Amino acid sequence: MTGTVIDVRAVRDQQRAVWDHVSQGWRRWQPDFERGAASVTARLLALAGIGPGLSVLDIGSGIGEPALSAARAVGPTGKVTGIDLSAGMIAAARDAAAELANVEFLVGDLETAQLAAGSFDAALSRWALMFAADRSELLRAAAAVLKPGGVLAAAVWGQPQDVPIISLGFRVISEQLGLPAPPPGPGPFSMSDPQALRADFEQAGFAEVEVSDVVAGFRFDSVEDFARFSRDVLPPGMKQRILEQRGSIEDAGVWNAVAAAAREYQRADGTVSLPSLSRCVRAVAGGAA
Fold first, then answer.
1. Does residue 3 surpass a pLDDT of 80?
2. pTM of structure
3. What is the pLDDT of residues 34-75, one digit of tens each?
4. N or C end: fewer C-beta atoms under 10 angstroms in the chain?
Protein backbone atom coordinates (compact mmCIF):
# COMPACT_ATOMS: atom_id res chain seq x y z
CA MET A 1 0.00 0.00 0.00
CA THR A 2 2.94 2.30 -0.65
CA GLY A 3 1.74 5.83 -1.28
CA THR A 4 -1.72 5.15 0.18
CA VAL A 5 -2.69 7.40 3.09
CA ILE A 6 -5.28 5.90 5.41
CA ASP A 7 -7.43 7.95 7.75
CA VAL A 8 -7.19 5.65 10.75
CA ARG A 9 -10.10 7.20 12.63
CA ALA A 10 -12.36 7.07 9.58
CA VAL A 11 -11.50 3.41 8.95
CA ARG A 12 -12.26 2.51 12.55
CA ASP A 13 -15.56 4.37 12.44
CA GLN A 14 -16.48 2.60 9.21
CA GLN A 15 -15.53 -0.81 10.60
CA ARG A 16 -17.57 -0.15 13.73
CA ALA A 17 -20.62 0.76 11.67
CA VAL A 18 -20.25 -2.28 9.38
CA TRP A 19 -19.87 -4.80 12.19
CA ASP A 20 -22.69 -3.27 14.21
CA HIS A 21 -24.91 -3.58 11.13
CA VAL A 22 -24.10 -7.25 10.52
CA SER A 23 -23.97 -8.34 14.17
CA GLN A 24 -27.51 -9.75 14.16
CA GLY A 25 -26.77 -11.74 11.03
CA TRP A 26 -23.63 -13.23 12.54
CA ARG A 27 -25.52 -14.01 15.74
CA ARG A 28 -28.16 -15.85 13.65
CA TRP A 29 -25.56 -18.03 11.93
CA GLN A 30 -23.24 -18.47 14.91
CA PRO A 31 -23.85 -22.23 15.46
CA ASP A 32 -23.34 -23.08 11.79
CA PHE A 33 -20.28 -20.87 11.42
CA GLU A 34 -18.62 -22.10 14.61
CA ARG A 35 -18.97 -25.73 13.59
CA GLY A 36 -16.87 -24.94 10.55
CA ALA A 37 -14.49 -22.65 12.42
CA ALA A 38 -13.76 -25.15 15.21
CA SER A 39 -10.57 -26.50 13.62
CA VAL A 40 -9.05 -23.02 13.45
CA THR A 41 -10.10 -22.19 17.00
CA ALA A 42 -8.50 -25.40 18.24
CA ARG A 43 -5.29 -24.67 16.34
CA LEU A 44 -5.03 -21.19 17.84
CA LEU A 45 -5.48 -22.47 21.39
CA ALA A 46 -2.83 -25.12 20.78
CA LEU A 47 -0.38 -22.67 19.21
CA ALA A 48 -0.73 -20.28 22.15
CA GLY A 49 -0.51 -23.07 24.73
CA ILE A 50 -3.79 -22.05 26.36
CA GLY A 51 -4.30 -23.97 29.58
CA PRO A 52 -5.48 -23.67 33.21
CA GLY A 53 -4.70 -20.49 35.08
CA LEU A 54 -3.57 -18.33 32.15
CA SER A 55 -4.57 -14.75 31.48
CA VAL A 56 -5.62 -14.45 27.81
CA LEU A 57 -6.54 -11.56 25.54
CA ASP A 58 -8.76 -12.08 22.46
CA ILE A 59 -8.28 -9.31 19.90
CA GLY A 60 -11.30 -8.65 17.70
CA SER A 61 -13.61 -11.07 19.51
CA GLY A 62 -16.63 -10.51 17.31
CA ILE A 63 -19.49 -12.59 18.67
CA GLY A 64 -17.23 -14.42 21.11
CA GLU A 65 -14.69 -16.80 19.65
CA PRO A 66 -12.00 -17.81 20.38
CA ALA A 67 -12.48 -16.08 23.75
CA LEU A 68 -15.25 -18.47 24.82
CA SER A 69 -13.20 -21.56 24.02
CA ALA A 70 -10.19 -20.03 25.78
CA ALA A 71 -12.29 -19.34 28.88
CA ARG A 72 -13.23 -23.00 29.09
CA ALA A 73 -9.58 -23.99 28.64
CA VAL A 74 -8.13 -21.68 31.31
CA GLY A 75 -10.73 -22.74 33.86
CA PRO A 76 -11.76 -20.94 37.05
CA THR A 77 -8.20 -19.94 37.94
CA GLY A 78 -7.67 -18.23 34.57
CA LYS A 79 -9.12 -15.11 32.98
CA VAL A 80 -10.02 -14.14 29.41
CA THR A 81 -10.61 -10.62 28.13
CA GLY A 82 -12.12 -10.11 24.71
CA ILE A 83 -12.12 -6.76 22.93
CA ASP A 84 -13.93 -5.59 19.80
CA LEU A 85 -14.84 -2.15 18.52
CA SER A 86 -18.42 -3.18 17.66
CA ALA A 87 -20.94 -2.87 20.49
CA GLY A 88 -23.34 -5.07 18.54
CA MET A 89 -20.85 -7.90 18.23
CA ILE A 90 -19.84 -7.59 21.89
CA ALA A 91 -23.50 -7.77 22.97
CA ALA A 92 -23.74 -11.13 21.19
CA ALA A 93 -20.49 -12.30 22.79
CA ARG A 94 -21.71 -11.36 26.25
CA ASP A 95 -24.94 -13.26 25.70
CA ALA A 96 -22.97 -16.32 24.60
CA ALA A 97 -20.78 -16.03 27.71
CA ALA A 98 -23.65 -15.81 30.19
CA GLU A 99 -22.64 -19.00 32.00
CA LEU A 100 -18.90 -18.27 32.07
CA ALA A 101 -17.62 -16.30 35.06
CA ASN A 102 -14.02 -15.99 33.87
CA VAL A 103 -14.46 -14.01 30.67
CA GLU A 104 -15.21 -10.33 30.09
CA PHE A 105 -15.80 -8.44 26.86
CA LEU A 106 -14.81 -4.83 26.26
CA VAL A 107 -16.05 -2.48 23.56
CA GLY A 108 -13.12 -0.64 21.98
CA ASP A 109 -9.93 -1.11 20.02
CA LEU A 110 -6.71 -2.45 21.50
CA GLU A 111 -4.65 0.49 20.28
CA THR A 112 -6.48 2.94 22.60
CA ALA A 113 -7.81 0.61 25.31
CA GLN A 114 -5.01 1.38 27.78
CA LEU A 115 -4.68 -2.20 28.99
CA ALA A 116 -1.78 -2.65 31.39
CA ALA A 117 1.56 -3.51 29.80
CA GLY A 118 2.68 -7.09 30.29
CA SER A 119 -0.68 -8.16 31.75
CA PHE A 120 -1.46 -11.21 29.58
CA ASP A 121 0.20 -14.60 29.25
CA ALA A 122 -1.12 -15.09 25.74
CA ALA A 123 -3.20 -13.39 23.06
CA LEU A 124 -5.48 -14.77 20.36
CA SER A 125 -7.08 -13.27 17.28
CA ARG A 126 -9.27 -15.06 14.76
CA TRP A 127 -9.97 -13.38 11.41
CA ALA A 128 -9.72 -9.86 12.83
CA LEU A 129 -6.22 -8.47 12.25
CA MET A 130 -6.84 -8.00 8.51
CA PHE A 131 -9.38 -5.25 9.26
CA ALA A 132 -7.05 -3.12 11.40
CA ALA A 133 -6.84 0.51 10.34
CA ASP A 134 -3.15 0.50 11.24
CA ARG A 135 -1.85 -3.06 11.34
CA SER A 136 1.59 -2.13 12.66
CA GLU A 137 0.11 -0.13 15.52
CA LEU A 138 -2.22 -2.98 16.44
CA LEU A 139 0.55 -5.58 16.46
CA ARG A 140 2.81 -3.34 18.55
CA ALA A 141 -0.04 -2.84 21.00
CA ALA A 142 -0.54 -6.62 21.18
CA ALA A 143 3.16 -7.16 21.90
CA ALA A 144 3.06 -4.51 24.62
CA VAL A 145 0.26 -6.12 26.64
CA LEU A 146 1.91 -9.55 26.57
CA LYS A 147 4.35 -10.68 29.22
CA PRO A 148 7.91 -11.30 27.95
CA GLY A 149 7.76 -14.63 26.17
CA GLY A 150 4.00 -14.43 25.80
CA VAL A 151 2.55 -15.89 22.61
CA LEU A 152 0.19 -14.32 20.10
CA ALA A 153 -1.66 -16.88 17.98
CA ALA A 154 -3.70 -15.38 15.16
CA ALA A 155 -5.64 -16.56 12.12
CA VAL A 156 -6.12 -14.61 8.90
CA TRP A 157 -7.70 -15.67 5.63
CA GLY A 158 -5.76 -17.09 2.69
CA GLN A 159 -6.18 -16.01 -0.93
CA PRO A 160 -9.78 -15.33 -2.07
CA GLN A 161 -9.96 -18.40 -4.33
CA ASP A 162 -9.16 -20.57 -1.30
CA VAL A 163 -11.77 -18.97 0.99
CA PRO A 164 -15.21 -19.52 -0.58
CA ILE A 165 -17.01 -18.99 2.74
CA ILE A 166 -16.15 -15.29 2.34
CA SER A 167 -15.24 -14.71 -1.30
CA LEU A 168 -17.97 -16.63 -3.16
CA GLY A 169 -20.90 -14.45 -2.20
CA PHE A 170 -18.92 -11.23 -2.61
CA ARG A 171 -17.69 -12.27 -6.06
CA VAL A 172 -21.13 -13.19 -7.38
CA ILE A 173 -22.81 -10.07 -6.00
CA SER A 174 -20.04 -7.86 -7.41
CA GLU A 175 -20.51 -9.50 -10.82
CA GLN A 176 -24.28 -9.08 -10.64
CA LEU A 177 -23.95 -5.38 -9.84
CA GLY A 178 -20.91 -4.60 -11.95
CA LEU A 179 -18.92 -3.39 -8.94
CA PRO A 180 -15.22 -2.52 -9.28
CA ALA A 181 -12.52 -4.30 -7.32
CA PRO A 182 -12.21 -2.88 -3.78
CA PRO A 183 -9.41 -0.37 -3.23
CA PRO A 184 -6.25 -1.42 -1.38
CA GLY A 185 -6.48 -1.24 2.37
CA PRO A 186 -7.87 -3.24 5.28
CA GLY A 187 -10.04 -6.17 4.22
CA PRO A 188 -10.54 -9.92 4.59
CA PHE A 189 -7.66 -10.91 2.29
CA SER A 190 -5.17 -8.15 3.09
CA MET A 191 -2.87 -10.47 5.07
CA SER A 192 -3.10 -13.56 2.86
CA ASP A 193 0.53 -13.57 1.67
CA PRO A 194 2.55 -15.73 4.11
CA GLN A 195 5.86 -13.93 3.59
CA ALA A 196 4.34 -10.50 4.10
CA LEU A 197 2.40 -11.86 7.07
CA ARG A 198 5.58 -13.05 8.74
CA ALA A 199 7.26 -9.71 8.05
CA ASP A 200 4.38 -7.79 9.64
CA PHE A 201 4.87 -9.62 12.93
CA GLU A 202 8.64 -9.36 12.88
CA GLN A 203 8.52 -5.63 12.19
CA ALA A 204 6.21 -5.23 15.20
CA GLY A 205 8.87 -6.78 17.44
CA PHE A 206 7.72 -10.38 17.61
CA ALA A 207 10.20 -13.24 17.43
CA GLU A 208 10.03 -16.91 16.43
CA VAL A 209 7.26 -16.17 13.94
CA GLU A 210 5.77 -19.31 12.42
CA VAL A 211 3.03 -19.51 9.79
CA SER A 212 0.99 -22.67 9.12
CA ASP A 213 -2.19 -23.37 7.17
CA VAL A 214 -5.45 -24.79 8.47
CA VAL A 215 -8.56 -25.58 6.43
CA ALA A 216 -11.89 -24.80 8.07
CA GLY A 217 -14.70 -27.08 6.92
CA PHE A 218 -17.76 -24.87 6.65
CA ARG A 219 -20.99 -26.57 5.66
CA PHE A 220 -24.57 -25.48 4.95
CA ASP A 221 -27.68 -27.61 4.59
CA SER A 222 -28.43 -26.30 1.09
CA VAL A 223 -27.37 -23.75 -1.51
CA GLU A 224 -30.34 -21.66 -0.40
CA ASP A 225 -29.00 -21.65 3.16
CA PHE A 226 -25.65 -20.38 1.91
CA ALA A 227 -27.41 -17.60 0.00
CA ARG A 228 -29.31 -16.63 3.17
CA PHE A 229 -26.06 -16.60 5.16
CA SER A 230 -24.43 -14.39 2.52
CA ARG A 231 -27.35 -11.98 2.64
CA ASP A 232 -27.44 -11.80 6.44
CA VAL A 233 -23.73 -10.97 6.85
CA LEU A 234 -23.43 -8.72 3.78
CA PRO A 235 -21.96 -5.28 4.63
CA PRO A 236 -24.41 -2.37 4.46
CA GLY A 237 -22.62 -0.70 1.55
CA MET A 238 -23.24 -3.69 -0.71
CA LYS A 239 -26.83 -3.97 0.48
CA GLN A 240 -27.31 -0.34 -0.48
CA ARG A 241 -25.97 -1.03 -3.97
CA ILE A 242 -28.43 -3.91 -4.39
CA LEU A 243 -31.26 -1.64 -3.28
CA GLU A 244 -30.19 1.10 -5.68
CA GLN A 245 -29.80 -1.17 -8.69
CA ARG A 246 -32.50 -3.78 -8.10
CA GLY A 247 -35.03 -1.96 -5.94
CA SER A 248 -34.98 -4.48 -3.09
CA ILE A 249 -32.41 -6.15 -0.86
CA GLU A 250 -34.35 -9.36 -1.46
CA ASP A 251 -33.91 -9.21 -5.25
CA ALA A 252 -34.30 -12.80 -6.45
CA GLY A 253 -31.83 -12.38 -9.30
CA VAL A 254 -28.95 -11.60 -6.95
CA TRP A 255 -29.63 -14.35 -4.43
CA ASN A 256 -30.50 -17.00 -7.00
CA ALA A 257 -27.12 -16.26 -8.60
CA VAL A 258 -25.38 -16.75 -5.25
CA ALA A 259 -27.21 -20.05 -4.71
CA ALA A 260 -26.36 -21.19 -8.25
CA ALA A 261 -22.66 -20.46 -7.70
CA ALA A 262 -22.74 -22.51 -4.48
CA ARG A 263 -23.77 -25.61 -6.46
CA GLU A 264 -20.11 -26.02 -7.40
CA TYR A 265 -19.60 -26.99 -3.74
CA GLN A 266 -22.76 -29.08 -3.34
CA ARG A 267 -22.43 -32.69 -2.23
CA ALA A 268 -24.58 -35.66 -3.19
CA ASP A 269 -26.74 -35.23 -0.08
CA GLY A 270 -27.54 -31.62 -1.01
CA THR A 271 -25.32 -30.02 1.63
CA VAL A 272 -22.78 -27.40 0.64
CA SER A 273 -19.15 -27.91 1.70
CA LEU A 274 -16.93 -24.81 1.64
CA PRO A 275 -13.41 -25.70 2.83
CA SER A 276 -11.66 -22.38 3.47
CA LEU A 277 -7.98 -21.72 4.08
CA SER A 278 -6.60 -19.85 7.08
CA ARG A 279 -3.05 -18.74 7.73
CA CYS A 280 -2.29 -19.34 11.40
CA VAL A 281 0.55 -17.41 12.99
CA ARG A 282 2.43 -18.11 16.20
CA ALA A 283 4.67 -15.28 17.41
CA VAL A 284 6.54 -14.62 20.64
CA ALA A 285 6.68 -11.23 22.38
CA GLY A 286 9.82 -9.92 24.01
CA GLY A 287 12.16 -12.78 23.16
CA ALA A 288 12.18 -16.54 23.65
CA ALA A 289 9.30 -18.22 25.43
1. no
2. 0.94
3. 999 999 999 999 999 999 999 999 999 999 999 999 999 999
4. N
